[in-house]
Amino acid sequence: MKRAALLAATILLTACSSDSVSAPVLLSVVVTAPTQTIAVGETLQLTTIARDVNGVTIPDAKFTYTASPTSVLSVNASGLVTGIAPGTGSITATSGTVTSQPLSVSVN
């Protein structure tokens, strides 16, 4: 009987333990590029950073990218932009529910 009570108490304490670490609260997503002008067919690698409410970089943040208009620019899942046609477009990055300010890119 004592073993069963001890086992039940151990299971209860383990289940109620506060060892889990909560994810940082995401505050901002910032996209930068070494240049904002590329040629048709040229590529440009973006650098994207997510920061928490304390301004600390969140190293394992995942991003999705959007290019607009897609007739001028395309962007892949790793943030590589390709110039499609002459014009100006923008790229945004999203992590969770937070979206960056648009990064303007001109294609010549």
Global shape: elongated
Strand percentage lies at 35-45%
Assign the CATH topology: Immunoglobulin-like
Structural class determined from secondary elements: mainly beta
Return the CATH class. Mainly Beta
Q: How would you sum up the major sheet?
A: 5 strands, mixed
Number of spatially distinct domains: 1
Percent of residues in helices: 10-25%
Number of helices: 1
Determine the mean pLDDT.
86
The poorly predicted ranges are: 4-18
Beginning-to-end CA distance, first to last residue: 80 Å
CATH architecture: Sandwich
Number of strands: 10
List the helices and strands in order: HEEEEEEEEEE
Q: Radius of gyration, rounded?
A: 22 Å
Can you walk through the features of this model?
With 108 residues, this protein is mostly beta strands. The chain has one domain (23-107): Immunoglobulin-like (Sandwich), CATH 2.60.40. The protein is 13% helix and 43% strand. The chain is built from one helix and ten strands; from the N terminus they run H-E-E-E-E-E-E-E-E-E-E. The protein has one helix at 2-15, and strands at 26-32, 37-38, 43-45, 47-52, 64-68, 73-75, 80-83, 87-95, 98-99, 103-107. Strands 2, 5, 8, 9 and 10 form a five-stranded mixed β-sheet that branches. A hairpin with a 2-residue loop joins strand 8 and strand 9 (98-99).
